[in-house]
Specification:
The structure holds 2 protein chains of 2 kinds. Chain A is an alpha/beta fold. Chain A has 12 helices and 9 strands. Chain B is built from 15 helices and 18 strands. The chains are: A alpha/beta, B alpha/beta.
Amino acid sequence: MTQGGMDNVHFPHRHLLGIEGLSPEEISILLDRSESYVEQNRRADKTTRILHGRTVINLFFEESTRTRTSFELAAKRLGGDLINMSVATSSIKKGETLIDTAMTLNAMHPDVLVVRHPDSGAVQLLSEKVNCAVINGGDGSHEHPTQALLDALTIRRRLGRLNGLLVAICGDILHSRVARSNIHLLNTMGARVRLIAPKTLLPFEIERMGVEVFHDMAAGIKDCDIVMMLRLQQERMAGNFLPTIREYFHFFGLDYAKLANAKPHALIMHPGPMNRGVEIDTEVADDVGRSVIREQVEMGVAVRMAVLELLTDNLDRGRAAAPRAAAAKIKRNKKKARR
Amino acid sequence: MSPRKQNSAGRTAYVNARLLDPASRLDAKGGLVTDGESIADFGPRLAAAKAAPKGAQVVDCRGKCLAPGLVDMRIEIGDLSAAVRAAVSGGVTSMVCLPNTQPVIDDMSVVEFVARRARKQGLAKVYPYGAVTKGLKGQELAELGMLAEAGAVAFTDGILAVADAQVMRRALSYASTFGLMIVQHPEEPSLAANGAMNAGETATRLGLVGIPTEAEAIMVERDLRLAALTGGRLHVAHLSTAAAIEAVRRAKARGLDVSCDTAPPYFALNENAVGDYRTFAKLSPPLRAEDDRKAVIEGLIDGTIDAIASDHTPRDEESKRLPFAQAAPGGIGLNTLLAVSLELYHNGHLGLLDVLRLVTSAPAGLLGLRAGRLEKGAPADLVLFDPEAAWKVDADKLIGKAKNSPFDGRPVQGRVLMTVVDGRPVYRPQA
């Protein structure tokens, strides 16, 4: 959380495709940088010129409001140009067309592509075909790195640390990229992760990702510092993963009775959008003392600003700019930011 | 005596009995005292009438066998009052009914309804299976967790197999979330379609469509793999073929947590019982070849088969008095469960305690029922029987409503002399 020495900070990756593989130091760099943007976003004048002249493209192959808007705000508050591209996946043949799209966009010289895609691995495939930086805005059931970062920032600001915390992630783990990114991040930062779900919603050999698995909410939540609920897609019922919403809520929905097993001041998180009465009871979701769900949204913008900044810095490094020059640029930008 | 007569107050001493408790391997001359609905005490020192507590009503067992009441883990309930009367006439004090009821047991209210109606009869206790899939359609999972909370002891689609492999996989996986067991009717429907009896020479001679043993073996092999994949708890019902039993035997040797049962027709009869289109011998699964029958006995002897269930399936005359191919499959079995199972003892295949274990503590253990063993404080559900007494099955005289016994006309040995439920004698033979 230190602010000092930021000018020498360098995030040593061209893209942000996932949390897996990042070191604790690299994650800390992203979180520390995000921290400074929280304050900026609370001011009346939220805009800087750090991304001045930069072009960011939101390339979304899947419906999204929150993540797309969050990236849009982040880019604009940094003074960048952003355009949204929504691509209906139903009409195109995947793979070939994805690469065609990438090549077309690449010819327009964007600086950053934020990509969401329903297929796991699609964002990485695309990143191999373009010259700009690529941020994974969520790919299939694989990763959603900015979500995990914003969750971590929320926790760190509330509890002061990640190391040593006990975090329960509950619900549809099987289909969740949020869960996977969070597992990687929390484990890397020294937190302990528990997963709570019916067996039909747990992927194969998930224990190998360094988590403890529970099928009983009360037992799994016991003594946890954080209870992170996941969204349950309604179509899971038809896929025979679950009998009914009624039964799911009865056994796996977060209500006060189940929450009573957690630590007294345990925080409740949800990546949104919530299904009230499905995975979370309305009263619990709206409990201002416990629920940090709205705070997560706020942190999302800060995290995405930090990621955009650090990745675009690297673009200059890539174009033969000496590290010193890049650092000087950061210093310049920071001065502007402080204005 | 009228089965509904209440006689629960006070103590009863059953003296001069041969006490049999398969769970503890007890086989000794002794006595047993009930107090109200529970077993107060039992053992060799209570054998003599003078050992009975003061004021207790004394029942002289005349050296006959006093054992825990039978636990029948697979019956179709049909007419409930007929079923519970048939049960106690066969020494059965607890039974588990399939969800193939009207309405289907796929909803909590039905679970509670069945249990409540059975309790009102005050005879054999009825525990319901819940449906695996809604409406037994084999497509969408029923609310297994909530059904279990309401009292369903395990889950099955009853006389139907969960045919879709993905649905079965999810069912096993989801059920294991709550530690629940899935009971499968092991028959691949596409191979059994239109089949009337076992595929083989007899079917060929009679011109009937055969159901190959592979229909059972394939489903069992598949489900064993799905159980291994999911870590789910699988129980395979009424095994009838050598191939399927061998598959379970190998799975158990590998350490898989799987269990299975068979029914008396599959170790006491073979496909020859179909004779000249005898529809009472049309069962599901069908009666198999003699080698399969022997394999069932072998499976019972070596412990591959964990339990014997009656597979009681009442069918009215209209559904049996039809051309063989059109007749409904199924036979009643509650009345004859003990007598036919005792053939395994009389023929020297199993000891008396071993046979009893297969119809008492073994099925109770599989389903987690507090039944099937002599235990102080446990419900006084008992059967007094003479293992040697010979009689001939006469379907028309069997207690109950349906008469479709595949054992009609069969001479058997082993007669129920008294059945006690919750300390009350609820059955004694007329003659």
